[in-house]
Amino acid sequence: MLKRLALLLLVAAVAAGTIFAADLPVVKNWRLELGQIPKATEISVNARELSLVCPGALNLSGGKGGNKLGVFSRLNTALLSVNQDAPAGVSIEATAIETETKIGSTPERISAPISIAAIDPEAAAEQGSKLLAANQIQLASESTMAGLAGTQCQQPAHEQWLIGGDTTVGRESVLVLTNPSGVSATLDIQIFNQAGAVEAIGLNGFAVAPGQTQLVQLSSIVPRTKTFAVHVTGQGGAIGAWIQQKTVRGLNATGVDYIGPNPAFSKVQFVPGVLIRGSKIAKKLAKANEDYVDLSPSVRVFVPGEKSAKVTIQVLGSNAKSFGTVVQQDVVAGRVADIPIAGLADGDYVAIVSANVPIAASMSISRVVGTSKPKIDFALLAAAESSVSERAIRVPTSGISKLSVVNATNKSAAVQVTIGGQTSTVTLQDAASVVLQTAPGDLVTVKSDKAVSAALVIDLDSAVTVLPLTDYKNQASKVLVSVR
Amino acid sequence: MKPQIAAVVLAHDQPEYLAVTLQALANQSQKPDSILIVDSSVNEACESVAAEHPTFNYLKIDSASSLPQSIHEAIQTFENQPTWIWLLHDDSAPQKTALAELMATAEKSSSVALVGPKQLRWQNPREILQLGLTLAPNGDIFSPVSGELDQSQHDHIDDVLAVSTAGALIRTEPYLALGGLAKNAPALAADIEFSIRARLAGHRVLVAPKAKIVHAALSLQGGRPKRWLKASPATAVRRAEIHLNLNLLSPVAAFAYWLFLPLIAFGRSLLAIATKNPQRILAELSATVWAWFTIFARTSSRSGIKRVRKISYKKLAALRATWGQIKQSNFVRTESELANELAIQAATDEQAGEQLNGEQVKPRGFAASGGLWISLALLLINFSWWPKGIAAIGGGVLPLADNWIELFNRAGASFQQIGLGYFAPSDPFVWVLSALGLTTFWAPSLSISVMLFAFSSLAFASAWRLLSVLTASSIARNLGALTYAVFPAALLAHNESRLPVLVTLLMLPIFAQAIIEVAGLTARSAQATTQQRATWLALAGLSFAAVAASLPIAGALGLVALAAVAVIRIKRIGYLLWIPLPAAALFGPTVLFYWVQLNQPLGLLAQPGLPQPNSQLPLVDLSAFAVLPIQGLTAGHLILALFLLSLFALLVRGATRSALLAIAIILLLAGSTLADQIQISAVGVGSTTQNEQSVDLGSGGFMAFAGLLIAVLLANLLSGLTRRGAKASVATIAIALLAVPTALFSWSNPSTLTYSDGRAVPSIVSAEAKAGSALKLLSIRPSLNSNQELVFAAEIVNGDGVQFEDISLSYRFAVAEISETSPEFAQISQLVADLASGSTGQIKTALNQLEIGYVLVANSSLQQSAELAFSLDSIAELEAVGNTDFGQLWRVREPNQSVKTDVASQQASWSVTKVVQLSILLSFGLMALPSRNGRRRAEDSDIFVDENEDANA
User: Fold this and answer.
1) N or C, fewer C-beta in 10 Å, chain A?
2) Is the dihedral of CA B156, B161, B166, B172 positive or negative?
3) Nearest to A52 by CA among A120, A116, A131
4) What is the pLDDT of residue A79?
């Protein structure tokens, strides 16, 4: 027994010794590395050529007579405004997408979609909207489509969120999908409405051939739906996507506009260019006829993800004469909500939509002129990107245009605005905004030391459209690659 | 006239034997007319012995004298030439009537030239050693009667082909006329060759069964100095056989025989392995070399034979052995050996039986002890691992090549078809994969799936088999084996499908048992025959190779264990030294490569296969029970608990052994902690699908040994406890510590493997590769490095994808340097950057030059993966194929056509090193196959049949 106890003690001693040794710093901190992890190589990559796609003239459903189901015809031409101050070595080339033919210098008016590219073989020029920017506007005055539709030409992408659309009676939403690439695009379309994601047939695997434009009547997917948002994702060629929205009240066409892609989801979205005119008449019309209720401004909010949002909308006046308002509403995750902004008098405003979770937002405003037989149009304002980078836009040669700029930070921002070669600096306090007059054909640039959002409001023949300023850019980058 | 008989005793440094022989000679019923002792000893002792017999003549000759020279000297000594010379060796003592009986036979005919006695074994005079000699059909020397008890059953024999000189009565006249024993003949061929020469000259060669001598056969037993035979006994025998063939065959046949001797030697070596006589190989080879280069000396006797020949050699065919006789003789010998062995087995079984309640307990077999049921229960617990397809994917496993030959081609290869081609020895683990794949050769990947399903059961059976040689207690065997099979570290390794660890866990008990058997550490194994020991040696060698190739750190620990056993059983070192041979063969080129080329000798210890980080899984998750102070039981907690329980083995019999085991376990556990502090680069083949940049060395090897030792210790404790209550308590605690966590762990952590048809790439890529395309696949995966920067990991993969055998450990150590120096790698980097940024760059040229046919973005949860896909979508040179099981795939629109249509140029799949490796493995494999004797023993063993089951029931 003694022997056994002695052995037990020996084992205990070895265990204690091992534990003691293991606890020594020299043992505890001992590390050995065998083999080397291959270092990732930093590769400089030139930026892709900057290229934009414009949708071309408005698409009139039902043909000229308006009574042919599923038939679209292009309505006249749109006015194209391009900033093409290309430096030496860079050329701007326009291509008719459908025919894949180069059309030399950019045309003044377009019917079919075109793509415009800044060809920079040496990749020497800094990309941005200063290098290339384009927008188009078109005034429609048909019996079935009337109003001013305007949009920025887009950088083709594989994913777009379009926050807007209405397919109730008298309203038409057409999804315009243009594939300017040489590769077929296979698209999946997701639609969210007030009740969440819409289950519908034919939303996936939507093919758009190279150089082709596909028009989708959204009423066939979400019939009689007042509030929705569209999410387009794709494989293959990158595409441009818009919703062409029009309204017909009775026998009167009362507005048309494009809804362009929203910037990335964010907890705060800025909508500059909320220039309210004819609000009293609109109110009267709405009171008299329910069909005119949507002339009142409203903000559409989509909440992605799984967490519902507490949304606060501040509509702030850009001058001392304009008094804004604040609205709060909860929006359930995965759903879209229209939040009416009541009580806004005529004036210049910006809307700041904030929430506790990232959201997307857009705004609808109307323009009503005349009392007996009022001319009605609406504008759909996608949120504008907030950035310190220099952004440029060519003011269309038609209409009266104003630039609306809002400070997207809570600090004072010194905003340098150049309009038609005249540069001025505006200091904007926290969330303050300013509206500046521009002349037709001016090149407008905005630069700031703090992030700002800006939009160009165009008023043509009592119709209105708003173009958010966008900085087009393909980043030249350093890419880390680890080959093994 | 009475014939004169002269007895000649050849003495050579064996005084004790000589004394007995001389005394026996003195006691003969019929005295020889004269007795001459011819002493070629180096020492004086034989002379002293001879001096004790003053009537015997004594002749001292040169110690270097050969047998023919000794006889010649003896004949020269006689003044009057005797009629008969009775030749006796110093180790051949005649019985009293031997000479009389020999003479009686000799007088039968005047043509008798030689009469041989019946030789009995010196150590056991009841056993016949030899009764005449003959040649087998292949020319081997064959003793037709040997190893049998002498019951006069062969006393009818008279004419034989040849007799040995020991105790032979030789008629002097023909001896001289025929030229005596050939001077150039090897020692063991001279007497047979002379006998045959006498036969060919028309003389008779007889045996006299009633004339008996006891013969120690010291020459063949290695009891004489080497100068006597000039080689080892085995070599001397083989030399004699070759010599006889070269002299007795026709000239053409003899030439062909000489020419093909190397081939014959190779074939006979294989046969030696198969018959568990590997010791003969060296003799075979050395005798062949000897004969090849002494061809003229070998054939010098041909002229002598030709001179005296009166009859054709073919006419002696009746005196030669037939294959049937040889088979019968071997059968009789085997039966005799088996009888001896069974007697030993019975005795040791009785010894191993345990005293329980005063009754002798017979060890129970696997089924009778309940092991089979436990094994089935373990299968049931692993039901979520049931193979739902051919190839398991996930954890540490990948599909193997869909063709076993392709898999085998990669084993031992010195060129790896990975990346852009890699010249280095393939991992020894590929041999393990090949062996594993061979079990389901029609679909090699299935073997892994099945093994994962049956792992716990197999580990249990393997450990049970080991414990069955250590203890006779059923409960000790079962609980010990269960401890090993569901050891916490084993459970985690299984859950994460760490194939190298699992293979080690399965092979380790086999290795341990084989070592025990080879070293003779148990009563039964100490009595094992040479052939049985050879079988275990081969099994030990193969299992050790499998362990070392799977987990080199376990191999290193195995070597330590082997060294410890060699110290304990120094006598067996001759066997033990051969055990690492297969592992050495597998690791030879690898060790050189790591040492010289990579300068990473410690890298040899790293675990092959897919790099996997250490498990963070709790064994039993208690987080749901918020009131408990601990979140869960870890593997460490349970290992500690099992160890502490097994420490009670120090309080029962065999405490010293238990203490040593306990100390070993402590050291192993400490070693496992240190192993976790060694980091190894994880970036290599297939790593684009993984996040890890580096992994721990891994404690699998240490844990496997620790698990086994704890299992043995626990079995020791259970078999050592004599009180029923104590035994029941320990068993209950052990079951609670094993069964509950195992069940909970298996329930909460089912298999996460996915199963496929064995493809490692999307089917379109696989189909194109099968059609002969050599186009490669560029696999890209965005990942975040330690600085949270986006890094695109990329690798070039062959058309058939990254399969398990493609995973190269050495590549992980080499890739850093390759990536810095290879221009192709730089080109790939630029290509990936261009693709990722959507820049047109030189994409088309790069795709063409790098022979890329497809681009795959491996599945990843990172948002950047989608962005990469968007970029690739916009590349005009690529065409989207779609989503696959392996990620998103793009096809190159215009791939390098010359490559696409060419059948991939295959590197030679054979090399000298591979041939050597395979030869050694096959040799060990052949030896490991149970012999007829071994098979019978296995069938008779209580594990597989349990002949006592019925009796006990």
Assistant:
1) N
2) positive
3) A116
4) 96
Q: From its phi and psi, is residue A95 left (phi > 0), alpha (psi between -120 and 50) or beta?
A: beta
The residue type found at A230 is V
- Cross-strand pairs, A243: A175, A259
Contact criterion met (CB < 8 Å) for B785 and A40: yes
Instruction: Kindly state the tokens that stand for B163.
Output: 């007799």
User: How many CB atoms neighbour CB A451 within 10 A?
Assistant: 17
- C-alpha–C-alpha distance, residues A34 and B604, integer Å: 10
pLDDT at B626: 53
Chain A residues near residue B688 by CB distance under 8 angstroms: 484
Which residues in chain A touch residue B879, judged by CB atoms under 8 angstroms apart? 183
**What whole-number distance in Å separates Cα of residue B945 and Cα of residue B953?**
14
B332/B385: higher pLDDT:
B385
Q: The dihedral of CA B939, B941, B942, B948: what is its sign?
A: positive
Q: How far is A82 from chain B (nearest CA, A)?
A: 25
- In this complex, the residue of A11, A39, A482 whose CB is nearest that of residue B650 is A11
How far is residue A204's CA from residue A414's CA, in Å, rounded to a whole number?
46
ipTM of the complex: 0.70
Percent of chain B having pLDDT more than 70?
91
Q: Collapsing DSSP states into helix, strand and coil, what is residue A174?
A: strand
Does the pLDDT value for residue A281 go beyond 90? yes
d(CA B414, CA B911): 8
Instruction: Pick A480's closest partner by Cβ from B678, B684, B789.
Output: B789
Indicate whether B945 pLDDT > 50: no
Q: What's the residue count for chain B? A: 953
Burial A192-203 (b: 16+ CB within 10 A, else e): bbeeeebeeeeb
Chain A residues whose CB is inside 8 A of the B846 CB are none
Q: How far is A62 from chain B (nearest CA, A)?
A: 34
What span, in angstroms and rounded, lies between the C-alpha atoms of A243 and A259? 5
Give the whole-angstrom CA distance, residue B707 versus residue B508. 10
Copy the structure tokens of residue B888. Answer: 């998103």
Tens of pLDDT along A301-329? 999 989 999 999 999 998 888 888 999 99
Decide the pairing of beta strands A309-317 and A325-331: antiparallel
Q: In this complex, do A35 and B789 lie within 8 Å of one another by their Cβ atoms?
A: no
Distance, CA of B131 to CA of A239 (rounded, Å): 101
Contact B655 A3 (CB under 8 A): yes
Per DSSP, the residues of B631-663 read: SEE-HHHHHHHHHHHHGGGGGSSSHHHHHHHHH
Question: Which position has the token pair 């760059």?
Answer: B841
- φ, ψ for residue A288, nearest 5 deg: -75, -35
Please report the pLDDT score of residue B627 as a whole number: 56
CB contact under 8 A, B829 and A3: no
Collapsing DSSP to helix, strand or coil, B222 comes out as coil
Average pLDDT, chain B: 86
Of A325, A311, A481, A469, residue with least CA distance to A392: A469
- Give B87-98 pLDDT, tens digit per residue: 999 999 999 999
Distance from CA of B810 to the nearest CA of A (A): 9
Tokens 């065997």 belong to: B477
Distance of CA B532 to the CA centre of its chain: 12
Q: What secondary structure, in 3-state letters, does B8-27 show?
A: EEEECCCHHHHHHHHHHHHC
A482, closest residue in chain B (CA to CA): B793
In total, the C-beta contacts within 8 angstroms joining chain A to chain B are: 185
What tokens were used for A344?
Answer: 């806004």
CA-wise closest residue to B428 among B557, B540, B584: B584
Residues of chain A found within 8 Å of residue B820, distances taken between Cβ atoms: 38-39
Q: With contacts defined as CB-CB under 8 Å, which chain A residues touch B674? A: 27, 30
Cβ distance of B833 and A479 shorter than 8 Å: yes
